[in-house]
Structures are given as structure tokens and as C-alpha cells.
Amino acid sequence: MKNSSLFIVLQRMRKPFLVLIITYTIAIVGLLIIDGVDNNGNPYNMTIFDAFYFVTYTATTIGFGETPYEFTYAQRIWVSASIYITVLGWFYAVGTLVSLLQDKLFIREIKRTKFKRQVESIKEKFIIILGYNQITNEIVNRAIEQGIRAVIIEKDETKANEAILENFTPTVPVLVADAHSAWAIEYAGIKSKYCKGLVSLFEDDSLNLRIALTSKLLNPYVKLVVKSTTKNHSDNLKDLDVEIVANPFSIISSEISMALTAPNLLKLEKWIYRMEDLNASLPLFPKGKYIICGYGRMGQHIYKRLKYYNIEAQFVEIDRGKGRNFTSDDFMHITYGNADDKDLLQEVGIEDAVAIISATNDDTTNLSVLATAKKLNPKIMTIARENEMEDFSIFKSAKIDHIFMPSRILINKTTNALINPLSDRFIRLMSKEDDKWASSLVRDLSSKIDEFPLLKEITIDKKNAFMVYEAIDKKEEITLKLFTRSLYNRDKENNIIPLLLQRGEEYILLPSLEEKIQKNDAILFACDENAQSDIEYICQNIYEFHYALTGKEKSTIFKKD
For residue 197, what are the β-bridge partners? Predict the structure, then answer.
């Protein structure tokens, strides 16, 4: 009750209501005890109803005349005084009401009530987004494209208004509140059966941990996507059973590792994230001396990868405090100073280096460093960290060889994990394979489908694949080959490659087309548009399913087999 707008109205309007009641009472009592006369000159006393009726319309200065009979001078004198009293009471009440309608607390409670009502009206899958910025804006848009609603909690009212003005379709409810507040997360619908997940990508690791703890206490079954930038914090999140821990710097170092040892794996990952097609050039990273500018979180993750492959690295860091835990060895060295200083770059051996990585949290510094390095060594490979998404065109124009954008990585990781969970699992499983395996898959995808295959996830249940589920229930033997049947030409097969099959806790990478399908299996396909459409029809349409299974048209009331 204490947080409701109704309570605020009752609390603020208590005195005005009392003033109105008292002034009305005084005016009515006076009219009841003062004698009047009727049309025949006989004494007459007003009833309570007549007195209340007369005071009601005169108090608001409307005035319909004297009723039920003409007043005596005594009554008129009393009415004159009563009008001043009641009108002042109304002025006080109306003034208080206007002040209340402008009160920030009241407006906030009205908005919260509206927000809660909007969330309760959502009867389809939705995700809760904590904080509104460029990253979460893109996540909301991608979720909506996949038919998943979104709910936003943002502490900054200006940013919250920006989210409202974004005019998402369908509407995205926005609540102005602290993201770590238990009541705010509960208002956002974390306990709803339609809540698909919660996203917390704040820069503050401790805040993310607090949100994860609160969310798991409110609903231990909700899927969480939480940002982490350190191993210790990631371990803490995993101890809380957080399903998706998004560490952009760890992902970047992993991608660099792929580029060094298995570039075709990185090509597959970029295709899955819809960043490049399969005909793009291989992201090859040379082996030799690397110069890393910035011994921060990203630099330290890259440090570990390069050390694992025994690759020499030279660090340049402006802040001496960041290198306190640095341990020099045969492959790693650190120098303090401005990384865009020509003399310093020459001192650390820019002419002999094969690559330079500018990994600071300032885009201007990163661009300046790489421009200077390119002048000193035109053949050097340039690798940059891009912090702001709006700077993408500037980085692209700078002709940098490889750009790593933590914000874009967070978007890809989050949307893939929440909206396309099998794709996310496929990336994690394939990263354990070698470049030969990846090269073979790239070749098969390109030759059998095209350079930019689509991804299709399907779950064999009553909702998503009713016909297949029912056939399995009837003990029919269904294999993955069923989905290769073209519904346009029975003599042809669709361009499909099954990438992953999930059966309970078991995952089968690149399953055979002869693999038998079971109820509740989840399957990830690579396919083209025609095959994608056919998969949906086979799963849901009785006639298309019969044709795909038997190669014959199913009889109808108009046509017999």
C-alpha cells in the first residue's frame, strides 16, 4: 500500500477533504436551523437534502436560484457567508490536487503502476533488460525480430525516456528504477512463466554479481546473461548457476587464438554471428613479435593466449600502477609511456614486430597508436579495440586489419545465447575442434548450400513440430533425412546440413542424416530459404509431412490416393 498511487492521493488530499467536509457541514447546518417561508407565507425549514443540494451548486459558484422557495433576508445573509467559506475550501482542494498531479513522486508511482500492468499483460516470451544503451538497444531490436518481447529497467530517467521515444514495435515497457532493486526486478516480471531470461551487462562486476544473486533468489529457474571481466568474478557467477557468463575480453582472446591456430573456426564463428560470409578471407594472424598497447583487462587476456603459444609480446602501458602484478619472462616484456610516441615504439622494436594490438579503452588513443605504428612499419598487422559503436565508420576508414569490438561481442553473445541457444552451444563445441575439421565444414556449407547459409533451430515437441512428435509417438522411425525432402520436387533434396543435435544433456556435433529423431530433441540446421520454409511445413502441416515421409500426396476429401 505504501508504494501505491492511491495511498499518495489519500494522504495528500486528507486535509483538503476535511476542509470541504467542515465547510459544507457549517453551511448546511446554518440553512437547516434558519427559518424560511413558503410561497403562502407559512414558516418552513429546509430538509437536509434541500440544504445539501443548494450548497452543492452554490459552493462551486454555479448558482441555479433559490430553492425550494425564495429565501428570507436571514437565509440570504447566511448563504452569502457560506459561499465565501465553501469557495475558499474548493480553491484549497483544487490547488492541492493540481500540486499533487505535478508531484514527481505521484507521477513516478503512476508510471510504475502502468509499467506493472503492461508487464502483466504480456502473454508471450519476453526478456528483461537491465540498463539502456547502444548495446541493449540492439539486443532489444534483435529480440523483437525473433518474436521475443522485451522489458527495460533503467535508473537514468533521460535514458529511460530515450527508450520510450525509440517507439519499439511491439511496445517495450520501461521502468525508471535501480536495476539491483528486488522489487524492480519483480515488477519487471522475473517470476512470470513467460520470462525467458534476464540480461545484466553493466561495467561494474560487483553490481552484476548482486543482480545475479537477487534474480536467482527471486526465480532460481530464470536464465541469466551476466557480463564478467575477470576470472574470479566469472567463477562467482558460475557458483550461482548463472547460465551465460559473457566475458568480452575472454572471447576476444579466444578469437585471437583461433586466428593463430585455426582460422577456419573463426570464419565459422563470424558466419554464425552474421558478421561475414563463408567466402571471406581467412583471418590469419602471423606468428612473431606482438606489441600490445594497454595492459588492461583485454591486454591481460591476450597476454595469456600469446604466452600459451610461446609468442613474444611487448607491452606498452602509460599507467605504472597497472603493471604491478606483471611477471616478465622470455616472451613478455612491459614498457611504460605513451604508445603513440614514435621514439617509444622504435624502442620496443616496432620495425621487427609482425603485429600491433591497441587495446586501450580510448578510441582516439587506439587510432593514433595504429596510425603511428603504420608509418614506422608499413607491413605490420594492425589490430584495434573499438569501444564506441558509433566510431565504427571511423575505424573502418582507418584501414585497420582487424577490429575487435567488446560491445558488438556482447550483443552477439547475448542474443545468440538467449534467442538461439543451440547456435551458442555449437560455437562452444566447435571451438574444441581443429582447423582441418573447420575447413571441411566451411567447404561443405559453401558447396552444398551457399556462402551465407541460414540457421534454423527446431525442437521436436507438440508446439514446434507437432506432426513429427505425433509420428514418433506412434512408434514410426523418423530420421534427420526427413527434412531433406524438397516439397517442390520429390526428386530433389533440400540444401540442408544438420550441425547439432541436443538430446537431454547429450550433444551430437554434425549428426548423420540417418540419425533417428526422438521426442524433445533440439536440432540446429544450416540451410537456405527454401529449406527453412520446408522444415517449418514438415513440422506443422499434416499433408506436407506425409509427402516428405512417403513421397506421396496425402488424400483429402476432394482427392483420394
Answer: 127
Would the pLDDT of 323 be above 80?
no
Please enumerate in sequence order all residues whose Cβ is within 8 A of that of 271, keeping only pairs 6 or more positions apart, or say none.
277, 278, 445, 452, 453
Handedness of CA 178, 180, 184, 187 (dihedral sign): positive
Looking at residue 436, its pLDDT comes to: 95
Encode pLDDT of 237-268 as tens digits.
999 999 999 999 989 999 999 999 999 999 99
Q: Is the pLDDT of residue 2 over 60?
A: no
CA 430-435-438 angle, to 5 degrees, is 50
Report the C-alpha gap between 93 and 107 in whole angstroms. 19
Q: What are the C-alpha distances in Å from 493 to residues 53, 233, 489?
A: 85, 49, 8
- Sheet containing strand 506-509, edge to edge, reads 454-459, 522-527, 496-503, 506-509
* Structural contact between residues 455 and 524, judged by C-beta atoms closer than 8 angstroms: yes
**How far is it, in rounded angstroms, from Cα 447 to Cα 278?**
10
CA distance 121 to 115: 10
pLDDT at 1: 43
List C-alpha distances in Å: 356 to 127, 316, 424.
Answer: 39, 10, 30
Cell readout for 141 is 531490436
Q: Break the chain down into helix, strand, coil percent, rounded to 5.
A: 50, 15, 35
Nearest to 133 by CA among 166, 181, 169: 166
- Asked whether the beta carbons of 369 and 299 are under 8 A apart, the reply is no
140: closest CA among 38, 148, 481?
A: 148
| Residues forming a β-bridge with 329 | none
Rounded to the nearest 5°, which phi and psi values hold at 338?
-80, 125
